[in-house]
Design goal:
The protein is built from 13 helices and no strands. With 252 residues, the chain is mostly helical. The longest helix is centred in the last third of the chain and has 26 residues, at 226-251.
Length: 252
């Protein structure tokens, strides 16, 4: 949580205001996902990384709908989300700290904007992962806009999606190889939808078995177009790269 009241306001004051007014109980009348979370402490517990992922994602989705500009624009829901997603903010700040002396304010402000305009009807799941991706992308676009004459100056995703070539921001551990299973578990805890990881893995396996048509096979199996497959795969790879950097930093 943010404990500096100058960032998004006082966390203790927000807790008292929401709990004393039984705001969460009122919200639950229109958002059934909030039933069983009558206090802020209950919401924090539901969204904890050690809790059920689907339950936490549903709670975040409910709060996003309440905070979205096209569905109520509730200020308390926005403030609560900013506090709940403060870990996302700090990770992004560490990654982009060289781009601005006011990077914390920039990232926090952009996250607030992304919450307000979040396409909750079209993207109802993987809330934390989507907000992290969109916020980081928007901050990079603002602070390091792409130069069409010099594309190498902007971030570029892997062309072929080879995860093994993703370069971490810190040196890799010298003694042991990366535990891929643990990395994927870390990715799920950080907010990546397990179904997106499964789709990514299925695509890589199909490309290995069917070099000329693996993508089409996977797309057909999942009932989506290849264009949708590429978009989801690209988004998952970018988010997974960020998780890999943090994971490698923690085990270095």
């Amino acid at each position: 949580m943010f404990h500096d009241p100058t960032i998004v306001g006082s966390w203790p004051a927000l807790v008292v205001r929401i709990d004393d007014s039984r705001t969460l109980v009122r919200w639950a009348e229109s958002e059934p996902a909030l039933l069983g979370t009558p206090t802020v402490a209950d919401v924090v517990q539901a969204c904890a990384v050690t809790s059920d992922h689907e339950r936490g994602d549903a709670v975040l989705a409910a709060l996003v709908r309440l905070a979205a500009a096209d569905n109520g624009a509730d200020d308390d829901a926005l403030a609560l989300l900013l506090h709940l997603l403060s870990g996302l903010v700090w990770v992004t700040v560490r990654q982009l700290r060289d781009l601005s002396p006011d990077i914390l304010a920039v990232v926090t402000g952009e996250l607030a904007c992304q919450i307000r305009r979040y396409p909750w009807q079209r993207r109802p799941r993987s809330i934390a992962a989507n907000l992290r991706h969109d916020t980081r992308h928007a901050v990079l676009a603002e602070l390091r806009p792409r130069n069409r004459r010099h594309p190498e100056r902007a971030e570029v995703l892997t062309v072929d999606g080879d995860i093994t070539r993703l370069q971490p921001a810190v040196p890799e551990p010298e003694s042991d190889d990366v535990d891929v299973v643990e990395l994927l578990q870390c990715a799920v805890r950080s907010g990546i939808d397990p179904r997106e990881l499964e789709l990514l893995i299925a695509t890589e396996r199909a490309r290995h078995l069917h070099p000329s048509g693996g993508d089409a096979i996977v797309a057909a199996q999942h009932g989506i177009s290849t264009r949708t497959l590429y978009r989801r795969r690209r988004r998952t790879l970018e988010t997974l790269r960020l998780v890999a950097r943090d994971y490698l930093a923690s085990v270095a």
